[in-house]
Every structure is written in structure tokens, then in C-alpha cells.
Amino acid sequence: MRQPKGGQAGAQGPWLFGVRHHGPGSARSVRAALDAVQPGAVLIEGPPEADELAHLAADMDMRPPVALLAHATDDPGRSAFWPFAEFSPEWVALRWALDRGVPVHFIDLPATHTLALRAADEAEGDDTGGTDGEKAEEAGKEEQPARPHPEALRVDPLAVLADAAGYDDPERWWEDVVEHRGGTGAGAEDDAGEAALASFRALGEAMGALREEFGDGGHTRDLVREAHMRVRLKAARKEHGDSVAVICGAWHVPALALRTTLTADRALLKGLPKVKTGLTWVPWTHRRLARAGGYGAGIASPGWYGHLFSAPDRPVERWLTKVAGLLREEGRQVSSAHVIEAVRLAGALATLRGRPLAGLTETTDAIRSVLCEGSDVPLALIEDRLTVGDVLGEVPAAAPAVPLQRDLERLQRSLRFKPEAADREIDLDLRKENDAARSRLLHRLSLLRVDWGTPAAARSGTGTFRESWRLSWQPELAVRVAEAGVWGTTVASAATAKARSDATSATHLADITALAELCLRAELSEALPDVMRALADRAALDTDVGHLAQALPALVRSVRYGDVRGTGTAALAEVAAGLAERVFVGLPPACTGLDTDGAQELRRQIEAVHTAVGLLADTAAAQVDGAGLRQRWRAVLRNIADRESAPGVVRGRAVRLLLDEGTLDEDAVARRMGLALSPGTLPPDAAAWIEGFLGGAAGGGMLLVHDERLRQLLDAWLASVPATAFTDVLPLLRRTFSAYESGVRRTLGELVRRGGRAAGSPAPGTEALPGTPADGFGPGLDPERADAVTEVLRHLLGDLVAVGAGDGGPG
Prior knowledge:
Blueprint: E1 15-19, H1 24-37, E2 41-44, E3 66-72, E4 75-84, H2 89-100, E5 104-106, H3 111-123, H4 157-164, H5 170-179, H6 189-214, H7 222-240, E6 244-249, H8 253-256, H9 262-269, E7 277-283, H10 286-289, H11 302-310, H12 315-329, H13 336-352, H14 360-371, H15 377-388, H16 403-414, E8 424-429, H17 433-447, E9 453-456, E10 466-471, H18 477-484, H19 491-505, H20 509-521, H21 528-541, H22 545-564, H23 570-586, H24 596-619, H25 626-641, H26 648-661, H27 666-676, H28 683-694, H29 700-706, H30 708-720, H31 723-737, H32 742-753, H33 783-788, H34 790-806
Helix pairs in contact: 1-2, 1-6, 1-11, 4-5, 7-9, 11-15, 12-13, 12-15, 13-14, 17-19, 17-20, 19-20, 19-21, 20-21, 20-22, 21-23, 22-23, 22-24, 23-25, 24-25, 24-26, 25-26, 26-27, 26-28, 27-30, 28-31, 29-30, 29-32
């Protein structure tokens, strides 16, 4: 192909429009340029397999941001995205062509090769993660899935051009040169078109100079991609003549203008690996367009760029009005005067900084100073809600999808459960049919690793009939759904097959018990027998008491869950009881030879087993001897409490659990505490016992408040700790007492300051004084201070008596 001057096609075409992906200035320039040249065909950088899906972009139900998703049909997890926003130049070009009936084609390397090359690079250990469409350079060049070799130096075109122009920020340079100047659409249409064409010529010349200096810039895979683009361009010229417009990353423009032979380009493409692929449209989000979300071609502020595209006139004023509306919704006082002053400040800052128009930096500085009064807290809200945003696109039902996706969409519609990109929490009452169905769906999706929702702490009530979820639908979940499609065509059948497979492949007992609990919550009755068989087999073979202790709580929760909902759980209860007995036998010997971390872990396991035994005894009374189970567990706790070789934190926790159960009285507890804090015990061991006894459970502080003997024992021991050991003991004690409420800590401090007297006892020397307050905190009645207010009280009471007498009341 003849290379025109500056790397840009001539006035008669073909026209090469080099853009920056997701740049609103580039998008407006593309629209103006296409209106000016009126091409007979439009070629867009993207996978050619998408040609058959291009017409869906004009569907009334298609709302960007959206993305083309390509995945290997035999391995849906191997995938790539090509995102489009409303302000993406490629999307503008696509809609321009569809609206006018102009042929449109995608010309990048086919996805069948892209995914295969990525797999080959991963096999060689040379992959950066992410997808091909997600890794792109700021000038609009999509980066390849393969990571360059260490000796290859990647060139950032925007950074080089910005540095040459004297800018230290490529983003700011791009805004000044493109977003705020060329192709804005100001003035007559002819002027806008000429300005757009001029800007493309200038950018093409700049990229041509960079390619002459840096070659491929370290992007070695681009040579293959650009060869395929040239092949497709030549085919389009053969069909449509020179009236062809190409919209591609600006980095590719010089390569597409090169004079090469068709034979040479096809030689570069010969022998490329292939995989069978499927393509469709999927919803995307502004948050996933953001660079902070891991998207290599992302922009820092998709919400701001979307605003610039939709409001080319007076963008600063319109933006600050949006910000003011958001702050008012959050209860902040923002007036019109605030907005006016912020607009003036943003303009002044732009002038001082030599910018043609206030950009995001200037508007943010003005917002912080005027609307947020210097606080970054509301500014973070603006950044999240507006600068980035939670816009979620929509795709029409006609878009291809795996059967599982169709079933999921049907369930979402029937349950009135629309996916949203923004994080939100919902509370489900499982006694309501629709809420119960929503819960089943979320649990089944969790089993399929489609994490639309994650369980959250219930905000109202803790009963079994309530669940709280935190929901957020992210675009990559479309890939998870495609992956899960190998397990079945419906959510229920896929989740059942996945549960059976997980039960067979699980290597840890705790994994199987958690799976059993999930099957009950998801109501996968067909999978539960297989899970139970795997659970029984694994439990019989596992001899690690730690594994058994970890598995028991989830299994007991499963028994309780099924019992509340009327599900048959007799087999689960029997397995849980057998598991508990094995824990009882193995736990005491496991308490020896532990380091600090091991002791803390065992303490947590003992607490979990204690709770599980109580639940099992209460909810499975028909299947197990609840009273006998409790009695045997208490005997285990006594064994651990009196076991000198056990760590102090474990012995202290065992004593505390026995006290809470009513098995040990206060005398027995005081005796054990006295032994643990005796002079023969090393201070760190004694502090660990205290942590186990008083920490980690509710009521530890109140126990000291009301039990003077325990408090005095602890106070006497603490006073006797040598100075050399105090620094070792202090962190343990601080960790224990910092968990108490501030009121409890204050009460304890006051009691210690008072010398340990119990609440309600009179201060020494004041026992005989009448009217001594019995609040336990004051030093008793001070006669001198009381006399100081006697005269004032006499006057007040006298006035009240006089008023009462004048009103006819009692004298």
C-alpha cells in the first residue's frame, strides 16, 4: 500500500483514524471525520468473528458499556474481552455505520488465534494475566496477551509525546491536546470535520515518528496483528474501493500505511495456532473500564470521560452541578453559590496552570476546597459514585448465550432479582417464598463459583430464617457462567453436578462438611447422598483431630439448618455425633507441644466445638443422646483445664467455658486461677491463662467487675510481676482488656483505684455517716462540701414554698 505523507491516508481514502480507546475527544473526532468523508465501509479494530454480532449494537435493548466476549468452547475460562463505552471511538464508528447502512467489519487478529497464542504463552510461563482486550496501551493500542521478554522495552507512546511537549503527566497532556481542543464539534459541521481530520493527520505523524524511532516498541506480537489488519484492509479496498475508513489504535496507523505485499503479510500469519471459540456481547461496567480495576487499556475516570462526551458544552459547570446534587442527597448543605464559586476556582486554576480548559484535576481541587470544605471524605464518595461510577450496561436477549446463562436470566426475571454493578446489601426472610428462592439461587451460584453475592452478617436478627447478602454483579461473572455451563444447562442441574464432583475430589474433611452445608442451603437434595457418602468415608479415614474439629461446626450447622426446614438430616446427625466422639478422644492429647500460634488455633477450635456440641445436643435430640454428649464434653474440658502440659491460653479457655456452663462454681474457678497465677508460674504463661479465661468471649470484663476475689487475685499477681518480665506480659494483657467496652474498662479502673471494694460498699471512715451514697464510686459524704450548698438550697426551697402558697397550694 502506498504510504501517504505523515502515515495518514489521502483525501480520497482509505482513511486511517488513529484513536485512543475510550477517549471522548477521539470519539467526537471520529464522528465528525466520518460525517466529513462519508466512507463506503468502516473497519474497526476487534476480532473478525464479531462481524456476525455487529448488528446487535443497533438493538434498542443494547446499552453500553458492553463488551465482546470471546471464549474457547472447550475451556470457557480461556477468554478475552473487548470493552466498549458510549464514548469509545470504536462504538461511535460502529453505530455510525449501522445507522447509515454502511458495511462494517472487525479487522484485528481473530480470537481463535488470540486465545490459542495466549494458551501457548501461559504454557511457557510468559503470561501477564488478564485478557487480550483488557491489556492495552494508553494511546489506544491493545496489548497482546503474551508478556514481552525481559530484554524487550515497552514504549508508552503517550508518555513519550507528553514528555516531548514538556508535560510530566501523559493523561493531562492528552486532555489538553485532544479532549479540550481538536474535534470538539464546535462551530459548523464542515469546520468540525476539517478539525478532526487535521487532528488525525497530526497524531498519525507523531506515531509515525515514534515507530521510526522505536520500531515495534517492544510489542512484538503487534507485527502479526498488524499484518492481519493489512490483509483485511486490502480485501475491503478490493470490494469497496478506496472509500474505506479504519478506526484503530493510533499506534497501529503507521504500520497499516506501510507498502507491503499480500504474500508477505500472509506469511506472517501462516501456522498460527487455533482454538474453537464462541463470541457474544456481555454487559460491562464503568468500574471495569477504570485502570484501577486492572484493565490495562483503562482510564482513570470513566465517569468523567462519559460526562465530557455527553456534555461537550460547559462541561465544568454541568459536572459541578452533578457533584452538588450528589452531596445534597447525602445530606450536605451545598448551595448554588457554592457551585458558582467552585466553577470560578476551577477556571482560575486552569489559567494559572496554562490549560485550555479546567480538567478533572482542577475541578477536583475546586470541589475539595469549596464543596467539601477541605475534607477528603466526601471527595472519596464523589470519586466512587461519579468520577468512576457504577453504570452497568445491558445486552439484548438476541445475543448468543450458553443455555445456563439463559436459565439464570429466566430466574432473575421471575424472582425480580435484577443484577446491579453497585454494591448493595439485602436481607432475606426465608419464610417468604420469593426470598427463599433468591437464597437458593445465590447459594447454587456460589457453589458454581459465580460469586454474585457473598454472605454478610445479618442486620436484623440472628435466627435461622434470616440471611443477609452483599451483591455486586461484575462483568467477569459472565465468564464464570460460561465456565459453569459444562456442568449443566440449568442452574439447578449444574449445581448438583458440581456438588457431586466436589465431593469426590475433596481432600479435606472440612471441605466436605462445608459442601454438605451448602447443599442443604441450596436445596440440592439429589447431590446430598453423594456428599454424605464422601463425608462418611473421609471421616472414617481422617485421624487428625484438628481436621475433625474444623469439620464439626459446619456439619452441625447443616443438621440445624435441615432440622429447621424439615429436611431429613438423621444421617448427618449420626455422622456429626460420631465425629464429636472422636474429637473428645483426640483433643486432650493434642494440647501438648504447641507453639503460640498453634495454641491460639486450638483455642479457637475448642470454642467452635463447644458451640457445635451445644447445637447438636439441642437440635438432634431424636438422633443423639444430647445430655450424654454434653456430659462427655464437659469431662473433656475438665481434663484440658487440669492438664499442666497444655498451653495457658487453652487451659484458661477451658475453665471459662466450664464456668459459663455452670459446671464449675466460683470457688473452684478462684482456686484454679490462684494456681495459674502462683509465684511458681512464669509471667508469660500466667498472662496466657488470663487471656484464655478473660479474653475472646463476651462477659470477661463484667466477670471481674462482679467477682471481687478474681479481681483481687489478678490485681495481686499483676503487682508482683517483675519489671524485667512486665514488657513481655503487657502485650497479652493489652490484647485481652482492649476487647472490653469502654464502660467496663472504666469501671475496672475505678474499682482498682478504690482499692478493690465491691460496688455498694461504703468508703472507710464513712460507714456511720447517714445518707452515705451506695453507688460504689464516690468517696462518701464530705460534710464541708455539703455545707457549701446548704444556703443555696434553702433559698431555692424557700422560693418554691412561697410560690406554692401564693397559688393556693400547700404552704
